[in-house]
Known about the structure:
Chain A is α/β, with parallel strands linked by helices. Chain A has helices at 16-19, 22-25, 31-35, 46-49, 70-77, 90-99, 142-150, 153-160; strands spanning 2-9, 55-57, 82-85, 103-105, 116-120, 125-128, 133-136. In chain B, strands 4-3-2-5-6 form a 5-stranded parallel β-sheet, sandwiched between helices. Chain B has a 5-stranded parallel β-sheet with strand order 16-15-14-17-18.
Amino acid sequence: MQFNGKAHKFGNDVNTDYIISGKYKFKTLDMKELAKHVMEDLDPGFYGKVTAGDFIIGGTNFGCGSSREQAPLAIKYADVSAVLAKSFARIFYRNAINTGLPVVECDTGQIDQGDELTVNLAAGIIENKTKGATIPVKPLPAVMIKILNDGGLAAHFREYGGFNFD
Amino acid sequence: MGQTIIEKILSNHCGQSARANEIVVARVDYVMGQDGTAPLAISAFHEMNGKDVFDPSRVAFVIDHSAPSPNEGVSALHKLMREFTREKGFRIYDIGEGVCHQLIPESGEVGPGSLVIGADSHTCTYGALNAFSTGVGSTDLAGGLISGRMWFKVPETIRFVCNGTLRPGVFSKDLILYLIGDVTADGATYMSAEYTGEAISALSQEARFTIANMAIEMGAKAGLMEADETTFDWLSRFTKRQFIPVTADRDAVYADVREYDVSKLEPQVAKPHQVDNVAPVSEVAGKPIQQAVLGTCTNGRLEDLRIAAGILAGRKIHREVRLIVAPASRRVFLDAMAEGVIQTLVESGAAVVTTGCGPCVGTHNGVPSDGETVISTANRNFKGRMGNSKAEIFLASPATVAASAITGEITDPRKFIK
Lengths: 166, 418
């Protein structure tokens, strides 16, 4: 899986209320509709600024707060290809893997707003084309790779009827 | 090498000796979803080709976040939940029954040694009953509903040793806010927090729930306490079931052990817009407020309402303040009515809303206006949390909220406590 796009940079502790506000998420299961409001309290009009394939760049503790799976889904349905951050909050991280949104732990201090990036998940390589630099990626645990490779947890369950990591 | 509480509970549920950083697939004792997460889990359940839930007696849905429904979109999702629970034959707690994190403990299904997943980040609340309970998302919830199992990375543990005695006017909410300010919002990410020491032992069960509830606000996966007489006395009101307490070994391995003397602690507040932006109330005293909120899964229990009523008795709230009260459960509401606590709150000028999450998540029941300041007993003060990103939210104890409602500005409650 290789993605090309530009960086949309945010700070530390981006919580799930900022990713998708509670005032929207309770109303609908239409993720395309929810995606229009993604990140709007931090960056009004963010949805309109994304070109398919772009990346959200976070600092530490990205996705902290509530367990709402609408957060990774809203990002995914906004056509963001992956989230790169120094660290992630655990529920968001699980939800992203389960729903097939790639999340990458790396040193995002080397990425600025608007930088053009190429992210190759299989090879574990991030190339910052604007800066001419490569950024190493922290590898995923085997269980998560298995879930991602199966196409998310729902597909994993369809295949095996339950958890199967043997 | 000894084990921490969470290593032992996970070991008991996965059939092997679980150690920090291993990944295990464990049996779960109870699975819960609420109206913000269950509808999406129902979609995932079907996507997984799910047929039945693993054990209808160990599963519940709760309608508490937008209850009763404020609009037709929410109504459709509530209907979906009701139909699903009817079809699969498991319990739904409908509007007015209360907040999930009060109802599940009151159900008597969860106690020392239990392993619980809930599709709500504050599921860590039941750690105060010596249970490993943690928040998951909707797809994990669906997986748990179908299989009765879940995969976990066994977390490392931070031990918080709280010595000393809290002074009058200082409560467990002040203590947990202080601890979060100290370790920061990601200071315990992916870890289990164990709270221990004489200051924890001295707390009532209700006060302990407040501390476990906010473990997620330091990034933790769980917030655990040991079970003692207080725990078992509280449980005995709701169940005859016998639970076996789980204690940490003396030689358990901790990622960090932090010691605190709580004796000098002042009432604390979390300032906008982060829960770890904590200061003593004296630093922000005098800041005008327009809305005060008493309730939520953090501080909507009988003891919390009593503390607030103790301060508000015979007084009126400030004429420019709205005080919104949401009891945590129907039982709490009935008990508070029976002892006159609700009478006192309403006489002081409070508006009581449906038991449940109240205005905490910004869906209804008190969305603040632009430029307004709210003081709340809830657990989150993120920008926009209560439905308006141009409002500010301060978090505090029920006593500080009650005192501030009277004066119209953030106020040290010790002014009103003899």
